[in-house]
Amino acid sequence: MRKMLFAPLFAAVLAMPALAQTPPSVAVPAEVDQLLRAYERAWAANDAPALAALFAPDGFALPSSQPPARGLQAIRQAYSHGGGQPTTLRALDYRASGELAYVVGAYGPANAGRDVGKFVLVLRKVDGRWLIAADIENANERMGPPPRPAAKPAAG
Prior knowledge:
By secondary structure, this protein is of the alpha+beta class. It is built from four helices and six strands. The protein has helices spanning 2-20, 30-44, 48-52, 72-78, and strands spanning 55-62, 69-70, 87-97, 100-109, 117-126, 129-139. The protein has a six-stranded mixed β-sheet with strand order 2-1-6-5-4-3, covered by helices on one side. The chain starts with a helix and ends in a 17-residue tail after the last strand.
């Protein structure tokens, strides 16, 4: 019985280094890189209108711990609760075909050299410019300061 339990555990331990490896960044075309840098600037400035301006008019934002937001007004509202931290976006994969492209990427605190989350951007050419049709992101870990401890009840 112990051997049956030990084998899966041992296999999981051996697989951990492979799971922990950080995928390398890939190059993206200049206009896609400009979009990623504009996203970083708007995020760091906590500028929800500037973030929303990077989206197609009917785009979707699917931020962690929030319902989907569709359209520029809803995206602006969804991103009004976050940002304000310098962040680095990097592409792990990029593909394009015609008017559509995607970026699979990772993000983390600027200049920290580590990823704390990942994202997928679906891009669509609108009037000759790449805009975000869908932004899906989720965290590997919390990026900001640790949460404050709950207040202790008054003694009495």
